[in-house]
Amino acid sequence: MCIAGWIMKVDRELFDILKEECLELIFVFDNEGNFINCSNNARESLGYPLSEEVGNFKVSFPKLELRETDVLEHIETDIYRKNETCFPADVKIVRCDDDRFIVFAIDQTENRNMARELNSCKEELKSELKYKTEFVSNITHELRTPVNGIQGMAKNLLNTELNSYQLETVGIIESCCVNMSKIINDLLDFSKMESDKLVLENKAFSFREFLNNVMAFNVTLVNEKGLKLLVHVGDDIPKYLIGDELRLTQIFNNLLSNAVKFTTIGHIAVEASLIREEDDFVELFFMVVDTGIGIAKENMDKLFKKFSQVDASTTRKFGGTGLGLSITKKLVELMGGDIKVESETGKGSSFSFNVILKKAEEATETTGVEIPNGNFVYEGSGQYSESEEDSKYAGEGGTGWRLTANSDKIYQFGTSENIREINSALEKLFICIELENWEKAENFASVVKNLISDNESEQQLKKEAFRLELIIRRGDHDKAIAQFNLFKSKLKELGF
């Protein structure tokens, strides 16, 4: 005997309790489908008072048939009230042993209303997002025109006869325009991402020419900070590939600019290698390694989030929208790959990613300027340096290549590595002071200070380096030169 039959036959008292207390609406029908009884809340839902005889009830369930079956669960139907209005319900039918049917129903009016409100909110949110995306897209397009105009005029001025002050001023204007253009482009890409309109182009291109262009674009920034740009290119990477060269360049530029931004001493290293080849497709592996400030473990999860940087001070000091890495991640994923990061505070970071590209017979247009295979220091367009000293940056045969330079020697005051780095930074520092490029001068002054240990014997020299940094920060040319010469004389006394 099923439970419903037990309720009906054995325990009438329990059924009376259920009639009064059950939250579900309960309806009882005979084997011919005639209504017999219902719970009190069912009466109330149908609009029948307790005083009204059950025989006067008109209970209708459209689309519902009482068939010879044991259980029918979760049937959606409407239940009509006394006033011939109806409400939606989710019903379950149970057949009893005495051929009666019990219908358990749950009023879905509130749930349906909530669903409609939710859908309405979703549509409203979607509409607002669309308007926001369109606004961002329109405003960035409007900003791009005047910025490009200012940048163009600045470039024209740089080709005229200018004194050192004017040259530096126009250079700053052009640099600001470049930064503004990057922000505008990031916002445009963000709006495309939000509206799922970010798509890739597939064109044939020369891989080594592409890589050479990326390195050439970033090497100036690397050189300005007194860093080395180390490169490893696998010799088994196909010469020509099919993919979105522009977006691949964007990925590299984002990673390299971040590496340069957060590195003051040491190296930036780039690896490109083939990890898989199947039919007409290849999977390439890339790595960008720096010896910069590193990233704390608790901040790792913020790296690829939109409008996020590891802390507010980073934004104030280095600028940026916080969109670069989130856009980079999206582009890598669109290319069938994934991006990962490993980092340690004070020792540097390593960003690695893979992409899937198609092989090509030949690119339609090439300049002929290509980066070579193997390991080398990149010094500028078409300038490569290979030496026994630099070979330590490569693994055997280039496989599993990592930046393994021991930067500890650079910080060991008085070692040949340390002296070389200090003198290199001082040369660039002097030029920046003469040009009154105080931002870059402060950077090189900070490098010099950090290259001096905190040992008691070097404390006085460290103080002089700190004084030099403070004077440069105030932008006083004469005092900066005087302090620079004083610092140089102190170094000379120590045998530098």
List keywords for this structure.
single chain; 496 residues; alpha+beta; Beta-Lactamase; Heat Shock Protein 90; 4 domains; nine-stranded mixed sheet; five-stranded antiparallel sheet; 14 strands; 46% helix; elongated
Structural write-up:
The structure is a single chain. With 496 residues, the chain is of the alpha+beta class. The protein folds into four domains: 3-107, 2-Layer Sandwich (Beta-Lactamase); 128-194; 203-405, Histidine kinase-like ATPase, C-terminal domain (Heat Shock Protein 90, 2-Layer Sandwich), CATH 3.30.565.10; 411-493. The chain is 46% helix and 20% strand. It has helices at 3-9, 12-21, 40-46, 109-158, 164-194, 207-224, 245-261, 312-318, 324-334, 408-411, 416-435, 438-450, 459-474, 477-493, and strands at residues 25-29, 35-38, 71-80, 86-95, 101-107, 203-206, 228-233, 240-243, 267-278, 281-290, 339-344, 348-359, 374-380, 383-385. The strands form two sheets. Strands 6, 7, 8, 9, 10, 11, 12, 13 and 14 form a nine-stranded mixed beta sheet that branches. Strands 2-1-5-4-3 form a five-stranded antiparallel beta sheet. A hairpin with a 5-residue loop joins strand 1 and strand 2. Helix 6 (207-224) runs parallel beside helix 7 and helix 13 (459-474) packs antiparallel against helix 14. The chain starts with a helix and ends with a helix. Residues 1-10 and 387-406 have low confidence and may be disordered.
Query: In terms of structural class, how would the helical and strand content be classed?
Result: alpha+beta
The domain tally reads 4
* Strand content bin: 15-25%
Q: What is the end-to-end distance?
A: 102 Å
